[in-house]
Amino acid sequence: MFRSAILGAALMGLAAPAFATSFTFETAKPVDDARITVIGTVWTCDGTVCKGDMNRKKVTVSDCKKLAKKAGEITTFKNDKSELSAEEIEACKAAARSN
What's the confidence (pLDDT) of residue 19? Predict the structure, then answer.
């Protein structure tokens, strides 16, 4: 019985997601590629909207700056629990302009 419980728990651990959270960012101009890889994440882009799953809970300016260097000027960056403020977006935009 104990062995079955351990095996069941192990299988549940394998079936559980790796705590990935869906993130979305939007750019001022359409992204050239349908898929870009930044921060170890493959982002799927359609026009100005890109989506990807990351093992993070919150959006950060640091991640936004990394995205901006690859995708261009970011206008929003969010997930279902957090979103960059207007001031944070301005800091992110500065990173895109420095390219």
Answer: 73
H or E segment to which residue 66 belongs: helix 61-71
- CA distance linking residue 87 with residue 70, whole number of Å: 21
Domain residue ranges of the chain, discontinuous segments joined by + = 19-97
Residue 97 has a pLDDT of: 73
Cβ atoms within 10 A of the Cβ of 43, count? 24
Q: What is the pTM of this model?
A: 0.77
Count of beta carbons in the 10 Å neighbourhood of residue 31: 22
- State the CB neighbour count (10 A cutoff) for residue 53: 16
| Predicted local confidence at residue 18, as pLDDT | 58
Structure tokens at 90: 């301005």
Phi-psi region of 72 (alpha: psi -120 to 50; beta: other; left: phi over 0): left
Q: Radius of gyration over alpha carbons of the chain, in Å? A: 17
